[in-house]
Amino acid sequence: MSIADALTPEFDREMAITRSLLERVPDDKADWKPHPKSMSMGQLAIHIANLTRWTGLALGATEFDMRPVGGAPFVAKKWLSRADTLAELDAGAAEARSTIAATSDADMLVPWCLKAGGQTIFTMPRAVVLRSFVLSHIIHHRGQLSVYLRLNDVAVPPIYGPSADEH
Fold first, then answer.
1. Region 62-83: what's the mean pLDDT?
2. Chain centroid offset of residue 105 CA
3. Mapped to the 3 state alphabet, what secondary structure does 21-39 carry?
4. Helix and strand totals (H; E) in the chain
5. Distance between CA 81 and CA 101 in Å, rounded?
């Protein structure tokens, strides 16, 4: 079994769970945040959807500099609405899935480097980038979003089994 074949079912499952949470983000609560240092609910939701785009960045090159010296910094898509966020997730997930499926095992093992201002943040094989920096990163923020929803009395969908709201 190829690395892509092993990652695809997990990717599909995590994207379905992610979509179920993003579907619940109320447009009228997009500016809500649990603490002044926290992202707003809208910022967090679009960040989660944007993370799918890192698959193409990781599998399409051997490095990415978020703030290249002498160049324009990376600017992530901003929150507009729940519908826009879902469209971003769907487009990013579809693109990521096809990119994963088209990537050979040899290419999955090529080291990839994330930089900021020319300084290396980390280097790891692309397959590990997909598991940690893309999927685990999405899952981490999805957990935050589930708390934001709960604190706003929005029913939390099942994630890895029944939720207190739906069982």
1. 95
2. 22
3. HHCCCCHHHCCCCCCCCCC
4. 7, 3
5. 30
If you average pLDDT over every residue of the chain, what do you get? 96
**Res. 167: pLDDT tops 70:** no
- Closest Cα partner for 11 from 103, 104, 139? 139
What DSSP letter does each residue of 35-88 carry, written as one string? STTSPPHHHHHHHHHHHTTHHHHHHH-SEEESS-TTSPPP-PPPP--HHHHHHH
Q: Are 60 and 112 in contact (CB under 8 A)?
A: no
**Cα–Cα separations (whole angstroms), residue 138 to 72, 91, 104, 167:** 25, 16, 23, 24
**Cα 158–chain centre separation:** 19
Which pTM does this prediction carry?
A: 0.94
When pLDDT is averaged across residues 115-126 and rounded to a whole number, the result is 97
The Cα angle at residue 91 between residues 138 and 77, in degrees rounded to 5:
65
CATH of domain 3-151: 1.20.120.450
Distance CA 51, CA 5 (A): 21
pLDDT 10s digits, 47-67: 999 999 999 999 999 999 999
